[in-house]
Amino acid sequence: xxxxxxxxxxxxxxxxxxxxxxxxxxxxxxxxxxxxxxxxxxxxxxxxxxxxxxxxxxxxxxxxxxxxxxxxxxxxxxxxxxxxxxxxxxxxxxxxxxxxxxxxxxxxxxxxxxxxxxxxxxxxxxxxxxxxxxxxxxxxxxxxxxxxxxxxxxxxxxxxxxxxxxxxxxxxxxxxxx
Amino acid sequence: xxxxxxxxxxxxxxxxxxxxxxxxxxxxxxxxxxxxxxxxxxxxxxxxxxxxxxxxxxxxxxxxxxxxxxxxxxxxxxxxxxxxxxxxxxxxxxxxxxxxxxxxxxxxxxxxxxxxxxxxxxxxxxxxxxxxxxxxxxxxxxxxxxxxxxxxxxxxxxxxxxxxxxxxxxxxxxxxxxxxxxxxxxxxxxxxxxxxxxxxxxxxxxxxxxxxxxxxxxxxxxxxxxxxxxxxxxxxxxxxxxxxxxxxxxxxxxxxxxxxxxxxxxxxxxxxxxxxxxxxxxxxxxxxxxxxxxxxxxxxxxxxxxxxxxxxxxxxxxxxxxxxxxxxxxxxxxxxxxxxxxxxxxxxxxxxxxxxxxxxxxxxxxxxxxxxxxxxxxxxxxxxxxxxxxxxxxxxxxxxxxxxxxxxxxxxxxxxxxxxxxxxxxxxxxxxxxxx
Amino acid sequence: xxxxxxxxxxxxxxxxxxxxxxxxxxxxxxxxxxxxxxxxxxxxxxxxxxxxxxxxxxxxxxxxxxxxxxxxxxxxxxxxxxxxxxxxxxxxxxxxxxxxxxxxxxxxxxxxxxxxxxxxxxxxxxxxxxxxxxxxxxxxxxxxxxxxxxxxxxxxxxxxxxxxxxxxxxxxxxxxxxxxxxxxxxxxxxxxxxxxxxxxxxxxxxxxxxxxxxxxxxxxxxxxxxxxxxxxxxxxxxxxxxxxxxxxxxxxxxxxxxxxxxxxxxxxxxxxxxxxxxxxxxxxxxxxxxxxxxxxxxxxxxxxxxxxxxxxxxxx
Lengths: 178, 436, 316
Hints:
- By secondary structure, chain A is α/β, with parallel strands linked by helices.
- Helices cover 28% and strands 25% of the residues of chain A.
- In chain A, helix 3 links the parallel strand 3 and strand 4.
- The mean pLDDT of chain A is 90.
- Chain B has 2 domains: 8-59 and 381-431, Urease, subunit C, domain 1; 62-370, Alpha-Beta Barrel (TIM Barrel), CATH 3.20.20.140.
- Helix content of chain B is 31%, strand content 22%.
- Chain B is globular.
- Chain C is of the alpha/beta class.
- In chain C, helix 6 (169-180) links the parallel strand 5 (158-162) and strand 6.
- Chain C has a 5-stranded parallel beta sheet.
- In chain C, 37% of the residues lie in helices and 15% in strands.
- Chain A binds chain C through residues 64, 66-69, 71-78, 80-85, 101, 103-104, 106-107, 113-114, 117-119, 134, 175, 178, and chain C through 1, 25, 27-29, 31-32, 35-37, 39-43, 45, 70, 301-302, 305-316.
């Protein structure tokens, strides 16, 4: 996907989120939580889109799932832990959890476990930029930017302008052997 | 194991180093009936003689160690007279002096006789017992020097402990004169040492271990030299470790006092920096402790210039349970008999010491301190000889030593220098073909 | 692992980067302590054993809380009333505990080098909670963390450590870590309490408190032991307090307004610190306690989280 396609996808997801929130009569209860790192940029853009559309900017937090990973025992080195920052109560809110790539579903599982340790949201919706299949857990996204079929030995990476890329892009390349 | 009958033994082709007689060159040594028969350049071997080919090797008087802990009676689990005498022979030593801090301590004839009997049965290196300065090593009353001398002691020492009372030390030096016994002293001011477990200084500060300053040794050395002056007694400073102590002994000799001194291979080669590098290895813990690099240099210089008369190992075996504990709790002491030659030879390689001086400090120099026979290859001298290969490399395997214990800081190190034959009274008591 | 280190036995052997890695991680751990649910599942199923041969409620509790927040199981084993008083050796005690498969052994012992000794003989990770006068690495780290939080950075700052340096493991750990992070460290105390050769570790020595704290950004006050039988370093605590203790007047007149005061605890109120200073505006002593849990969480996470060898290719 090129930058234009990414932009279109983000706008479309924002519209779908807003529509569903309106149908549920819960437009004011929306809040975004981005899963570090890629999900944070998606969450910010969605939040900004909805802010533009409604005139009210929903609150946003970031979540680092390192402490909730299910594979700590198998890893050689403990994964680096980044900052988690959620400053609003979750009660009564519809939390839109955002991540850039949905693959095995383990990251989302960890994010959900961490999220509920902060409080009890009214509902949690999942928005992803790319769903590449290959699920290992029964997790499904509510909002998907693009579906890609990608071979097992290849990686999907999202390059974000916010992280220094010249322009947004979704790239697929062979996984580097460790 | 072969031990030739006391007939004729000829050692051919080796470099004979006999400092007492000023000999350093290729010679043939003939031993007959337990004594040195002749040492010459062109000597024919009698037909019934056993011949040892010493080409490429050294032939020296057997080494004499003034300071060995044999642990028998009382702590045979660490070492016995037999295992210690055997370990000595493996190191090229034909005579060792046994310190009296046994259980019970050697402050009477029966313990002395026990040690001598065990040594005779062992049939390896000769053992000369050292008796206590004070009864029970308690530092209160004099032991019976007459009885000890008659039983076979060659010196008195409370080694392991200092004699705290200056008055008592004075009396010991005076009384010992009657029996021509040197008083060998373990110098430390126990109050200054306090709970110190290593040399006080930057290394101890880094490790967070309590320090034992060099001055704890020096104040006692200075005290005892002054008492030697007062009494005319023969004073021998054991395991000298600090620059200040060496200076004091040098000055005492210049003034003509009867003071002698010994230094150990470890105080000649290891410093407290090596202890830091070892990561709290208790095989680097002994008393006196490893000192600073400057002290090590001063001890080396003292040995080279004759201030220090002898090299003595202070061989101190300890069992695993006494050493495999946290540093503070570990016993003081390391093995020394089987590693002494290569460790000191390394000093010669580094130019710190001449080979001749090294041999002298292990032979005639040592004998002079206690008035012991031997230490030379003069005709008529006891046939105590060491044949050494200075180039033979070997890796120190603590489990393969003749000693019953394993506490050596040179474990796993590759050393160069090994005794190939050790001969006591004309009998080969140790032979090493190089299979180890 | 912390860098290449499987154990945390001292700060002298850590690099500046490794120390910063721990401090950055501790920041995230501190955030967990501010959540409504103070628990994360990272060390679930792991066991942390506190092996304390010296009594210490605070440090032990701090490690215990740290383990529990990370969902690890914590087991406390203190020496009084146990097999050690029956003469069991340190090694036997540790080997017996190791048979119960702990992931981390936290050890406090009166003998310097005891954690080094244990690390050579057990298979699990070893964390020193203080050994003799050698080091107290988690205390050093939490002191650095506290100072970094309050001063922004340690680079170019002046830190003064006051007290019985010769017997202080906290002083050594602080000295090693703070100099690596760029601080200038001054040591202050009567000459009897300054160990030989300490300048070689990178500090300057002062005997006058006023001169020592002049321009200082932080002052670490150490606890003075009341008696040291057989080897008195000071005539009494009254004289010590007069010349090397901090009270409100000295703090007001001698310290920069922005200077902070630390103490590893427990405080001898009235000896090294008066109550009004211990509870006053310069004091960050309570921060130290909270930061201690965060730092110990970071250490346990790094040493207990993860298999000893190899990493799988990750998929998310």
